[in-house]
Amino acid sequence: MARNHEFPRQPTRAGASAAERDPSTWSDCDFELLERLLRSSLAKAGNAVRETFDRSERQMSAREFVQFWNNCPLKAMATVGVSGSPHIAPVHAEFVRGTLYSTIYIDAQRRRDLAANPRVALTTWDATGAVAIVQGRALVIPESERESRPGASGKPRRTVLLRIDIQRIYAMKGRPRP
Fold first, then answer.
1. What does the longest C-alpha to C-alpha distance in the chain come to?
2. Domain boundaries, the chain
3. How far apart are CA 93 and CA 17, in angstroms?
4. Which of 22, 49, 129, 146 could form a disulfide with 45 if both were Cys (CB 3.0 to 4.6 A apart)?
5. Is 102 exposed, middle or buried (0-12, 13-18, 19+ CB in 10 A)?
């Protein structure tokens, strides 16, 4: 049975303007922490990660990284449950003025996981081989609960907003195409 519920695209961060979500309008200050994280993460990485991401011709600047991240429509978020079981699911996540935000459903397994262990990993990629991985801690923004698109039952669902305090970033551009 088709449902006729039309919800406009909601920004991941409720109330964020298009300019706040568009990295081309940000100041250099909005990128400083991300630039440091890109460089320090690679310096601290293990050999396998360095061998994969430490290619000078494919390294991204912070601006390139945010542009790539925000232009990829879906990301995958991984959490760990109290029993140690991993959980992974597609999420919307975007940078707003240098800070990473995501939303999750209030009844999602990931929300229960985050209550016990706030550590998360997110990734996104494209067909050219460009990839980005972010590791950090997710914090629920107080009083951010809101109505979202309906689920399969047709009933509206509720989400909360997460701020991801990033601890590591690995990113590289795609391979040049002939």
1. 53
2. 21-172
3. 15
4. 49
5. buried
Terminal-residue alpha carbon distance, the chain: 47
Whether 5 shows a pLDDT value over 70: the answer reads no
**Three-state secondary structure along the chain?**
CCCCCCCCCCCCCCCCCHHHHCHHHCCCHHHHHHHHHHHHHHHHCCHHHHHHHCCHHHECCHHHHHHHHHHCCCEEEEEECCCCCEEEEEECEEEECCEEEEEEECCCHHHHHHHHCCEEEEEEECCCCCEEEEEEEEEECCCCCEEEEECCCCCEEEEEEEEEEEEEEEEECCCCCC
pLDDT of residue 151: 86
Q: Which two tokens stand for residue 17?
A: 């303007």
Mean pLDDT score, 9-35: 80
**Closest by alpha carbon to 19, among 76, 95, 89?**
95
What pLDDT does residue 13 have? 63
As assigned by CATH, the class of the 21-172 domain is mainly beta
**Looking at this protein, which amino acid is placed at residue 164?**
I
**List of residues 6+ apart from 47 with CB closer than 8 A:** none
User: Which two tokens mark 166?
Assistant: 């990033």
